[in-house]
Design goal:
Layout: E1 2-6, E2 16-20, E3 28-29, E4 47-48, E5 59-61, H1 74-79, H2 88-117, H3 132-168, H4 175-204, H5 214-226, H6 229-232, H7 234-246
Antiparallel strand pairs: 1-2, 2-5, 3-4
Helix pairs in contact: 2-3, 2-4, 2-5, 3-4, 4-5, 4-7
Protein backbone atom coordinates (compact mmCIF):
# COMPACT_ATOMS: atom_id res chain seq x y z
CA UNK A 1 0.00 0.00 0.00
CA UNK A 2 1.44 3.36 -0.92
CA UNK A 3 1.03 6.77 -2.49
CA UNK A 4 2.08 8.22 -5.84
CA UNK A 5 1.76 11.35 -7.92
CA UNK A 6 -0.13 11.06 -11.19
CA UNK A 7 1.04 13.39 -13.91
CA UNK A 8 -1.24 16.21 -14.98
CA UNK A 9 -3.43 15.92 -18.07
CA UNK A 10 -5.04 18.33 -20.51
CA UNK A 11 -8.03 18.47 -18.15
CA UNK A 12 -5.80 19.57 -15.28
CA UNK A 13 -2.05 20.26 -15.43
CA UNK A 14 -1.39 19.86 -11.72
CA UNK A 15 -0.27 16.37 -10.56
CA UNK A 16 -2.64 14.57 -8.21
CA UNK A 17 -1.87 12.35 -5.22
CA UNK A 18 -3.30 8.82 -5.27
CA UNK A 19 -3.45 6.08 -2.65
CA UNK A 20 -3.09 2.57 -4.03
CA UNK A 21 -2.76 -1.10 -3.22
CA UNK A 22 -0.33 -2.94 -5.50
CA UNK A 23 -0.69 -6.66 -6.31
CA UNK A 24 2.29 -8.71 -5.10
CA UNK A 25 3.16 -9.56 -8.70
CA UNK A 26 3.74 -5.87 -9.50
CA UNK A 27 6.58 -4.98 -7.12
CA UNK A 28 10.00 -6.22 -6.10
CA UNK A 29 11.37 -6.22 -2.53
CA UNK A 30 15.06 -5.26 -2.58
CA UNK A 31 17.63 -7.07 -0.48
CA UNK A 32 18.76 -3.97 1.40
CA UNK A 33 17.48 -4.62 4.92
CA UNK A 34 20.15 -3.47 7.36
CA UNK A 35 21.90 -0.94 5.12
CA UNK A 36 20.82 1.98 7.30
CA UNK A 37 22.80 3.32 10.26
CA UNK A 38 20.23 2.11 12.76
CA UNK A 39 16.88 0.30 13.12
CA UNK A 40 18.48 -2.71 11.48
CA UNK A 41 15.85 -5.02 12.95
CA UNK A 42 12.89 -3.13 11.49
CA UNK A 43 12.56 -5.11 8.25
CA UNK A 44 12.41 -1.88 6.28
CA UNK A 45 13.29 -3.19 2.84
CA UNK A 46 13.05 -0.88 -0.15
CA UNK A 47 10.41 -1.59 -2.79
CA UNK A 48 10.88 -1.20 -6.54
CA UNK A 49 8.11 -0.62 -9.07
CA UNK A 50 9.08 -1.08 -12.70
CA UNK A 51 6.54 -1.08 -15.52
CA UNK A 52 3.84 -1.60 -12.92
CA UNK A 53 0.14 -1.55 -13.75
CA UNK A 54 -2.42 -1.18 -10.97
CA UNK A 55 -6.16 -1.71 -11.55
CA UNK A 56 -8.12 1.53 -11.30
CA UNK A 57 -10.33 -0.01 -8.61
CA UNK A 58 -7.23 -0.50 -6.45
CA UNK A 59 -6.53 3.24 -6.28
CA UNK A 60 -8.27 6.38 -5.12
CA UNK A 61 -7.46 10.05 -5.31
CA UNK A 62 -6.32 11.51 -2.02
CA UNK A 63 -3.53 11.53 0.55
CA UNK A 64 -3.13 9.28 3.57
CA UNK A 65 -2.97 12.35 5.81
CA UNK A 66 -6.45 13.63 4.90
CA UNK A 67 -9.10 10.94 4.42
CA UNK A 68 -12.61 11.87 5.51
CA UNK A 69 -13.78 9.43 8.20
CA UNK A 70 -16.86 11.28 9.42
CA UNK A 71 -19.51 8.88 10.71
CA UNK A 72 -17.21 5.86 10.50
CA UNK A 73 -15.58 3.84 7.76
CA UNK A 74 -15.97 0.46 6.10
CA UNK A 75 -13.41 -0.84 8.59
CA UNK A 76 -15.27 0.38 11.67
CA UNK A 77 -18.51 -1.12 10.34
CA UNK A 78 -17.00 -4.47 9.35
CA UNK A 79 -15.13 -4.92 12.63
CA UNK A 80 -17.67 -3.11 14.87
CA UNK A 81 -14.74 -1.21 16.38
CA UNK A 82 -14.39 2.60 16.27
CA UNK A 83 -10.59 2.30 16.18
CA UNK A 84 -10.92 1.58 12.46
CA UNK A 85 -12.42 5.03 11.88
CA UNK A 86 -9.25 6.89 12.84
CA UNK A 87 -7.25 9.21 10.64
CA UNK A 88 -3.75 8.50 9.35
CA UNK A 89 -1.31 10.99 10.83
CA UNK A 90 -1.98 10.39 14.53
CA UNK A 91 -1.75 6.60 14.39
CA UNK A 92 1.32 6.84 12.15
CA UNK A 93 3.13 9.15 14.55
CA UNK A 94 1.86 7.29 17.62
CA UNK A 95 3.45 4.08 16.36
CA UNK A 96 6.81 5.81 15.91
CA UNK A 97 6.60 7.63 19.25
CA UNK A 98 5.90 4.37 21.10
CA UNK A 99 9.15 2.93 19.71
CA UNK A 100 11.17 5.97 20.76
CA UNK A 101 9.75 6.03 24.30
CA UNK A 102 10.66 2.35 24.58
CA UNK A 103 14.18 3.17 23.40
CA UNK A 104 14.57 5.74 26.20
CA UNK A 105 13.69 3.12 28.81
CA UNK A 106 16.05 0.68 27.10
CA UNK A 107 18.84 3.26 27.39
CA UNK A 108 17.99 3.86 31.05
CA UNK A 109 18.31 0.13 31.75
CA UNK A 110 21.78 0.11 30.21
CA UNK A 111 22.78 3.34 31.95
CA UNK A 112 21.84 1.79 35.31
CA UNK A 113 23.84 -1.34 34.46
CA UNK A 114 26.89 0.82 33.71
CA UNK A 115 26.39 2.78 36.93
CA UNK A 116 26.52 -0.51 38.83
CA UNK A 117 29.55 -1.92 36.99
CA UNK A 118 31.78 1.06 36.07
CA UNK A 119 33.70 3.67 38.02
CA UNK A 120 33.74 7.43 37.65
CA UNK A 121 36.12 8.87 35.03
CA UNK A 122 37.64 11.45 37.42
CA UNK A 123 38.70 11.55 41.08
CA UNK A 124 37.54 10.67 43.54
CA UNK A 125 37.41 7.36 41.66
CA UNK A 126 34.56 5.22 42.85
CA UNK A 127 31.40 3.42 41.72
CA UNK A 128 29.22 5.53 39.46
CA UNK A 129 26.25 4.30 41.45
CA UNK A 130 27.48 6.27 44.48
CA UNK A 131 28.35 9.42 42.54
CA UNK A 132 26.04 12.43 42.93
CA UNK A 133 26.46 13.59 39.33
CA UNK A 134 25.52 10.22 37.87
CA UNK A 135 22.58 9.99 40.23
CA UNK A 136 21.30 13.38 39.04
CA UNK A 137 21.85 12.53 35.36
CA UNK A 138 19.98 9.25 35.77
CA UNK A 139 17.18 10.91 37.73
CA UNK A 140 16.80 13.66 35.16
CA UNK A 141 16.51 11.14 32.32
CA UNK A 142 14.06 8.97 34.27
CA UNK A 143 11.88 11.99 35.01
CA UNK A 144 11.83 12.97 31.35
CA UNK A 145 11.09 9.38 30.31
CA UNK A 146 8.09 9.23 32.64
CA UNK A 147 6.80 12.55 31.31
CA UNK A 148 7.08 11.36 27.70
CA UNK A 149 5.40 8.04 28.53
CA UNK A 150 2.50 9.92 30.15
CA UNK A 151 2.08 12.12 27.05
CA UNK A 152 2.20 9.06 24.80
CA UNK A 153 -0.47 7.27 26.84
CA UNK A 154 -2.71 10.33 26.92
CA UNK A 155 -2.44 10.79 23.15
CA UNK A 156 -3.43 7.15 22.66
CA UNK A 157 -6.44 7.71 24.93
CA UNK A 158 -7.42 10.89 23.07
CA UNK A 159 -7.11 9.11 19.74
CA UNK A 160 -9.46 6.33 20.84
CA UNK A 161 -11.93 8.89 22.21
CA UNK A 162 -11.93 10.82 18.92
CA UNK A 163 -12.58 7.55 17.06
CA UNK A 164 -15.39 6.54 19.43
CA UNK A 165 -17.04 9.96 19.29
CA UNK A 166 -16.74 10.01 15.50
CA UNK A 167 -18.74 6.77 15.23
CA UNK A 168 -21.10 6.89 18.20
CA UNK A 169 -21.93 10.54 18.90
CA UNK A 170 -21.53 12.42 15.65
CA UNK A 171 -18.78 15.07 16.09
CA UNK A 172 -16.32 14.16 13.35
CA UNK A 173 -12.64 13.29 13.75
CA UNK A 174 -11.30 16.26 11.81
CA UNK A 175 -8.10 17.03 9.95
CA UNK A 176 -7.31 19.64 12.62
CA UNK A 177 -7.78 17.07 15.42
CA UNK A 178 -5.46 14.69 13.64
CA UNK A 179 -2.74 17.21 12.88
CA UNK A 180 -2.67 18.60 16.43
CA UNK A 181 -2.51 15.21 18.15
CA UNK A 182 0.15 14.01 15.70
CA UNK A 183 2.06 17.23 16.38
CA UNK A 184 2.17 16.46 20.10
CA UNK A 185 3.39 12.95 19.38
CA UNK A 186 6.06 14.32 17.05
CA UNK A 187 7.33 16.41 19.95
CA UNK A 188 7.53 13.19 21.99
CA UNK A 189 9.75 11.63 19.31
CA UNK A 190 12.07 14.63 19.17
CA UNK A 191 12.23 14.95 22.96
CA UNK A 192 13.08 11.23 23.26
CA UNK A 193 16.10 11.84 21.05
CA UNK A 194 17.10 14.78 23.24
CA UNK A 195 16.89 12.61 26.38
CA UNK A 196 19.10 9.96 24.78
CA UNK A 197 21.60 12.54 23.55
CA UNK A 198 21.76 15.17 26.29
CA UNK A 199 20.72 13.24 29.41
CA UNK A 200 22.47 9.91 28.78
CA UNK A 201 24.85 9.72 25.81
CA UNK A 202 26.89 12.77 26.76
CA UNK A 203 27.60 11.37 30.24
CA UNK A 204 27.89 7.64 29.64
CA UNK A 205 31.46 7.64 28.30
CA UNK A 206 33.03 6.90 24.92
CA UNK A 207 33.80 3.27 25.81
CA UNK A 208 30.18 2.36 24.97
CA UNK A 209 30.52 3.76 21.42
CA UNK A 210 32.07 0.53 20.16
CA UNK A 211 30.08 -1.40 17.57
CA UNK A 212 27.75 -3.92 19.13
CA UNK A 213 27.52 -2.25 22.54
CA UNK A 214 23.95 -1.90 23.74
CA UNK A 215 24.08 1.87 24.22
CA UNK A 216 25.71 2.30 20.81
CA UNK A 217 22.88 0.37 19.16
CA UNK A 218 20.24 2.48 20.93
CA UNK A 219 22.00 5.70 19.90
CA UNK A 220 22.12 4.61 16.25
CA UNK A 221 18.48 3.55 16.27
CA UNK A 222 17.36 6.86 17.76
CA UNK A 223 19.51 8.82 15.31
CA UNK A 224 17.64 7.16 12.45
CA UNK A 225 14.24 7.58 14.14
CA UNK A 226 14.67 11.33 14.58
CA UNK A 227 15.79 11.63 10.93
CA UNK A 228 12.58 9.93 9.77
CA UNK A 229 10.35 11.79 7.33
CA UNK A 230 7.71 12.25 10.02
CA UNK A 231 9.82 14.55 12.27
CA UNK A 232 10.92 16.40 9.14
CA UNK A 233 7.28 17.52 8.76
CA UNK A 234 7.50 19.43 12.05
CA UNK A 235 7.64 23.03 10.82
CA UNK A 236 5.11 22.48 8.01
CA UNK A 237 2.76 20.81 10.50
CA UNK A 238 2.96 23.79 12.88
CA UNK A 239 1.58 25.93 10.08
CA UNK A 240 -1.22 23.50 9.26
CA UNK A 241 -2.17 23.25 12.93
CA UNK A 242 -2.37 27.04 13.17
CA UNK A 243 -4.36 27.41 9.95
CA UNK A 244 -6.92 24.81 11.10
CA UNK A 245 -7.24 26.40 14.54
CA UNK A 246 -7.63 29.91 13.07
CA UNK A 247 -10.00 28.96 10.26
CA UNK A 248 -7.53 29.74 7.48
CA UNK A 249 -7.10 27.82 4.19
CA UNK A 250 -4.76 24.83 4.26
CA UNK A 251 -1.41 24.96 2.52
CA UNK A 252 -1.55 21.22 1.71
Amino acid sequence: MGQAFLAGTEQGPEPKVYLFVAPRSEWEMLDDWGDTLGLKGSGSHSIRFEGTRIPASWAREGSMIDIDVEGGTEGSRVHDNPMYSGRGMTIFTLSLAAVTVGAVYNALDEYEHLMRTKTTPRPPIGPRLQDGDYQRWYGRALTHAKLLEAVLDDCARQHMELCRRNVEEGPPFTYGDDMLLAGVLREVMIRCWEVIDADLWQTVGASVAREGQRMERIFRDMAVAVAHRNPLLRDWAYGEIAREALGLPRAF
